[in-house]
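Re: the 406-residue chain
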Amino acid sequence: MMGPEGRRRRPSVRDLVDDVVVELSVRKVRALLVVGAVALSTGALIASLGIAVTAAAQVGADIAAATLDVVEVRVESLADGALDTSVFPDDADDRAEAVDLVASAGRRLDLSEVYPTAVARSGHAGAVPTPGILVVGATSGYLDAAHAVDDETYTFWLDRPTAQVAFLGPGAARDLGVPLDGPTSGLRVWINAVPYDIVGEVEPDGPAALDQAVVIPYAQAVASARSDADARMLVRTLPGGGAQVAGVIATAIRPDDPARLEPSAVVSLSSLRNGVSTQLDRLAAWIGSILLALAVLLVANSMIVSVAARTSEIGLRRALGSSPVTIAGLFVMEGAVVGGLGGLVGSGFASSVVVVTSILNGWDPVLDPLHMASGPLLGLAAGVVASVYPSVRAARISPAIALRAD
């Protein structure tokens, strides 16, 4: 026949939950603070991951729009150091534009870097050249590929070798004192004492960077430099076509010797997006993990204080027959409940942060259901881990000593 001790029923999970709810309702302020700490930490982790995913998607889209559709082709130096006077064929622009996925292409030679140039506003003898002005030779296709002009009406002049015309960047026009806010008819600049009629303005931004430049016909720049070894071609492709075009453009331009040309390295859009996403995810995970670890320490500290404050209660429970396992289970359950509630609140907090951050930055929010659903699980895990030491400490308290604690 079993005695009362043998017939004592082991507390169920529901009993432990009921005890935890009663305890939390008695100590509401402490419970709210602990739940808030877990909510902030798990919410910060999930929000940082969500923002990282959203930012990665936006960065990938921006890069695809601004970079992956541009390929630059440069001249590869000869192994013996000899100077090749003609690398790009005369119809290089047409050959490049004949490639699938290519929208526009053109060549450029920075004449000021390879040949002495002096730009002046006046052609009179003794006119002082304006410093800091770059002379650039370009084809009309280059300005098109670089999106360097709003109005392409007069860019065809750049394809005429004998045309004495020039386009000015805003910075160059300002330094030279040339007004570009009205008709340019009759306006001139002198390059090495040769007059050039101004026919338009180029944009300062974009890959061309022509703010301080005077743009003249490409053929004239090559003639002055006596070589196109320092020239380069800019190829504008359809969105996302940069990687494919980079692999064939040299052969399309110089099928006889494609090794003379070196296209810029362009990674595929999917690889670039994966790389950006991976880096941002790692950063977010590290930040969130640190916050979660701090939350675990905070919850553990709070529960240790709770164990000390409830020493008499623990002694009474032990005196009434509760086993050390039951006492430990009570505190583990408290940590699990607090952590789960905090994680649930943290998921809602994270969703709001991701949406608000996206709206403020003009992004399209990306909410991963898996990330949001992981909040309660993260909080539960954090609460259980934080309660391990306090629960073991509570289970080891001697009933006799506990009852005399007060």
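Residues 1-7 have pLDDT under 50 and may be disordered.
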